[in-house]
């Protein structure tokens, strides 16, 4: 696991398949230049805290995206898992499949045993603007905290 990118660093670019709005789509960070992007790394589809976290973000999606920001959830499970997870809980945000863990590793949150719970905000120029990495995977940042952070970038 490499260290995570720091505020002011260029955000590691990536392209991953994801499940969104009932279909598979490709998501590329560099294609979002012009919009902040909130990257939400979570350990597993279906985990109770993951359900709670992504439900909170999905329920507050309008607040989180009011500044034009995008929000993407990332975990190592495959697209079939993403489709089932999103369908079961009605999530309104894209869920990306980092099945090889390369993106989690590039962001310093995956050592090969699965990602730690973390959030990174990439500003509209592709620069790291804010981050939080959970120490114990049991807590996550509230939608209000993320909305305030993204509004400040």
What does it look like?
The structure is a single chain. By secondary structure, the chain is of the alpha/beta class. Helix content is 27%, strand content 24%. The protein has a seven-stranded mixed beta sheet with strand order 2-1-5-4-3-6-7. Strand 6 (118-122) and strand 7 (128-133) form a beta hairpin. The mean pLDDT is 93.
What string, H for helix and E for strand, traces the elements in order?
Answer: EEEHHEHEHEEH
Named CATH architecture? 3-Layer(aba) Sandwich
Strand content: 15-25%
Uncertain segments of ≥5 residues (pLDDT<50)? none
- Specify the biggest β-sheet: 7 strands, mixed
In percent, how helical is the residue content? 25-40%
Oligomeric state, counting identical vs distinct chains: single chain
Order of strands in the sheet with most strands: 2-1-5-4-3-6-7
CATH class: Alpha Beta
- The tally of structural domains comes to 1
The number of helices is 5
Radius of gyration: 14 Å
Terminus-to-terminus distance:
27 Å
Q: Give the CATH H-level superfamily.
A: Glutaredoxin
3D shape: globular
CATH topology: Glutaredoxin
The tally of strands reads 7
**SSE class:** alpha/beta
**Overall pLDDT metric:** 93
């Amino acid at each position: 696991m490499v260290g995570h990118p720091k505020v002011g660093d260029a955000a590691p670019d990536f392209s991953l398949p994801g499940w969104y709005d009932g279909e598979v789509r490709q998501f590329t960070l560099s294609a979002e230049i012009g919009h902040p992007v909130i990257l939400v790394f979570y350990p597993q589809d279906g985990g109770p805290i993951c359900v709670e976290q992504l439900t909170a973000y999905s329920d507050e999606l309008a607040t989180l995206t009011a500044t034009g920001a995008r929000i993407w959830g990332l975990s190592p499970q495959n697209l079939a898992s993403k489709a089932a997870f999103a369908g079961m809980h009605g999530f309104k945000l894209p869920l990306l499949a980092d099945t090889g863990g390369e993106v989690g590793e590039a962001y310093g949150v995956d050592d090969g045993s699965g990602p730690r719970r973390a959030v990174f905000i990439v500003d509209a120029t592709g620069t790291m603007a804010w981050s939080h990495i959970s120490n114990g995977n049991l807590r996550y940042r509230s939608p209000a905290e993320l909305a305030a952070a993204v509004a400040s970038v």
